[in-house]
Each structure stands twice: as structure tokens, then as C-alpha cells.
Amino acid sequence: MDNTKKIPDVQKTMEVAEKVELKRELGLIGATSFVIGNVIGSGIFISPKGVLAATGSVALCLLVWLIAGIVSLGSALCYAELGTIIHKSGGTYTYLQKGVGNFLAFVYVLQTVFIQNAGSIIIMLLTFSKYVMSMLPVCGSPVYLEKFITALAILTLILVTSYSTRLASHIVVVTTVGKLVALVIIIAGGTVAMCQGTTSELGSGFSGTSNDPSALALALYSAMWATSGGENITTIVEEVKNPSKNIPRSLIIGLTVVIIIYMLTNLSYLAVLSRAEMLGAPAVAVTFAARTLGPLATLVPFAVMVSTLGASNGSVIGGSRVAFSAGRDGNLPHVLSYIHVHQLTPLSAVLLTAVMAMAMLFPADVESVIDYLGFLGAFMNICVFLAFLRFRLWTMKDVKRPIKVPLVIPILMLLVNVYLFIAPLVISPQLKYVFGAATLLGISVLLYLPFIHLRLKLPYFDTLVTWYQLICQVSPPPDWQD
């Protein structure tokens, strides 16, 4: 039976904008706020103690934070160069596809869109929900209420991101300013304490430094995880005004601000709190505020809520753009690249992000699910820096580069990520790493061969897509042209 006769003519039924494509809404302030907001989550408020626990000494702890910041800045500079020569949304996905091949890009999409990004959103919003519940007259910590608040937060972010990229970017700016103000208040409290002669652990220097080589590796791993995320600005290149200038500027300004803020915040914590207090505090910033900020201490829980909500908003924006780019390229169903004809937002990709985030509410231990695949992020970074070297030395060596980093930087970044990939396997070999990687690769092969390589389609899929277009008022984007 020919089912196509029943399919309505979408172009006649739906008034489509003259050119349905993503709009460039983010200027330098919006892009810089996106960088800062993606890096600074709840960690600096709640648990910056992991590095101190691993290093054992204050001086080495601060040194590791500085090294992690410098490495993140070096990585950001490489991404800045990539963002100025490849003006296509998708970030790491796009660079993998162009630099090392479509299959690895497909594996990255499955890992990021369906697990990593969705899990990160849920972890941050569960923290948001815990702090909301602390302000409500409830007994204990009802799990269902916590998940209900998390679901409401997801729906709110999805509605905002679907409605307007400009509104979503304004929220990024506001939440970024909010968390920076809170951190500046913490830094001011620490500065006043130091001026009054309170130094607590700062004078201990390298005393207590761990002799375990693996501890230093774990400390660096933790600090680099906390300072990563700024490169996600390259996932939304097509929505940044004048990307050749604003991408590198936003990364350099944003990461520099983050490094300074992180160093000063940790100095403030260590000047006021003892080592035992830092390691034992469930939320370091709350303990610090209660000790130093007086009436302003109540701002800290609110700052954590703002921080987690802002970082989640950035993850929704960035993660949906990876799905959008993959859909446009055919590495996910093409419908995921469809854009709302009036709002000009990637509605389909945003809805997928919502569905995957909601699904992550059900696993009992989301952190473990992410940890199974987390170390693969370092492997993907290795591939990105190999792609960078390939672009620079061979395939795109003659392309004009508004920013051109010294070749030693991507080489160092490559070596660092090789270390970060190998370290967990050598220092703490666990079957879960092999199991997670093997499962992901197996699923990738099973999906890639029939649906990507052979381009097979499910029966009636086109009919369903057409009805979806009519209901949600979405339309395919134009083919990508650089």
C-alpha cells in the first residue's frame, strides 16, 4: 500500500519562515557568560575538597589547581583556533568528524547526547532540588518530591531554550553574574579574615604531602574535571555573532576569570577552615559562610541553586546543538535537526535532551553510569588534538587563522590527555572501564552499520516525521555551507 498519499503537504499546510536556520544571538558578553557558566557549577561551592584530600598538603593543592587551570586554558586556545576555521556547530563532534572519521564522531554523539550530557544535567538539577527542599517545610528528604522538583526544573529550562535562544542566553548571563557575585563575597570574606591575621592552613605549605604517585594523578584528574567545559562554546558556533573574534575572546576571557576565581576561592577556604573542616564539610561554602559572612551566609545556598540552574541551562543549550549537528549530518535521525519555523530554535534536539534527562531520573546511581564512560572523554580529547595537528600540518594548513596557537600547546594537550586516559587504567584498574567502553562500542557498531552506513529507515518513519512537523511547526534547516 502506498502510504505517501495520506501525507499532507507540509509546505502548503505550514507557513514557513523565508529561511529557517539558527540565529546569531550571542555577542561577546553572552558567549563569555556561556563559557564561565559551563565551567563553574556547584563543585566550587560544595566539594572543592577532593584535590586537598588527594594531595595531602595546602601548597600542592593550590599548585594542582593552578596547573589544571593552565591546562584548561591551553585546551581552550586550541578549541578557539578550531572554532575560527570551522564555523559549524557541534564542537568536539564536528572536529572528530572532519579530523578522524565519521564513526568516532558517531560514538561521541551516543556517549554525549544519550548519557554524559543528560546525566550531568540531572546531577546538577538534583543538587538544585536538594537546596530547594531545604527551604520547604518537609520532613526528611522525600525522594519523589526531589525528583518532581528536578523534573519541573528540566521542563522550565526546555521551555525557555525552545522559546528563544536570546532569552536562554540572557539567563546564562544573569546566573553567571549571580554565581560570580557569590564567589566574590566568599573571596572578600577570606581576604578580610587574612587581613585580620587568620591564615589557618595556609602556613603549612607542603606539610602532609602524599607520597603516593597515584594520588597526584587523581588530584589533577579532579581539578581538570572542575575546570573543563568552556570549550562547549564551540557547540553553538552558528549562534555566536562574529565567531572568528568572539569565540577566542570569550574562551580566553572566560577561562582567565575562572582560574583567578578558583584560586582566590580556594585560598579563602584554606585561610579560614582547617584541613579537617574542609575534608569533613558536606558543603564547604556553607561551612565557610557560617564562619565568616554573618547575615550574608544565607546567600550561599541560594548561590548554589543559581549556579546549578545556570550550568544546567548551558548543558541543555550545548548538548542539544550536538544532537542538532549530528541530525543534520545524518548521524542521528534528520528530524533532530529540524528548527521551529517561528522561534528559529532547534526544537527537536532540545526535546531529545529533555527526554534523555528525564530518563536519567530513574537510575539509582547516575554518577556510576557516567563514570563507566567518563574516562572515554579523555580518549575523545586525544582524537580532537590529533585532528587539530592534522588540520594545522596537512588538510587545512593554508586556511587563514584569526588566532594561531604555538604548535607546542596542542602537543602538550595531547600528552596530558594521553596521561588522563591511561592513568585510571593503570592507577586503579577496574572492569567497569573496559565494560563501559566495550558496551558503547558494541552498540555503536550495531547502530552505525544499518542506519548510518547503509542508510536503512524504519517503516512509516517519514510519515511520522511529517505529522510531527505539522504538530510542532518545525522545518528542515538548509544544507550546511561554510
From TrEMBL:
Q: Where do transmembrane segments lie in this chain?
A: 26-46, 52-82, 103-128, 148-164, 171-194, 214-230, 251-272, 292-311, 344-364, 370-393, 405-427, 433-451
User: What GO annotations for molecular function exist for this entry?
Assistant: L-amino acid transmembrane transporter activity
UniProt keyword annotation of ATP-binding present: no
Quote the Gene3D superfamilies the UniProt record gives.
Answer: Amino acid/polyamine transporter I
**Keywords, comma-separated and alphabetical:** Membrane, Transmembrane, Transmembrane helix
Topology in the lipid bilayer is annotated as: Multi-pass membrane protein
Instruction: Identify one Gene Ontology CC term for this UniProt entry.
Output: membrane
Any keyword Transport? no
Concerning InterPro entries, the annotation shows: AA/rel_permease1, AminoAcid_Transporter
> Where found in the cell?
Membrane
User: What PANTHER family does the record tag this protein with?
Assistant: AMINO ACID TRANSPORTER, AMINO ACID TRANSPORTER PROTEIN JHI-21
Q: What is this protein called?
A: Uncharacterized protein
- Which species does the entry assign this protein to? Lymnaea stagnalis (Great pond snail)
Kindly list the organism's lineage.
Eukaryota, Metazoa, Spiralia, Lophotrochozoa, Mollusca
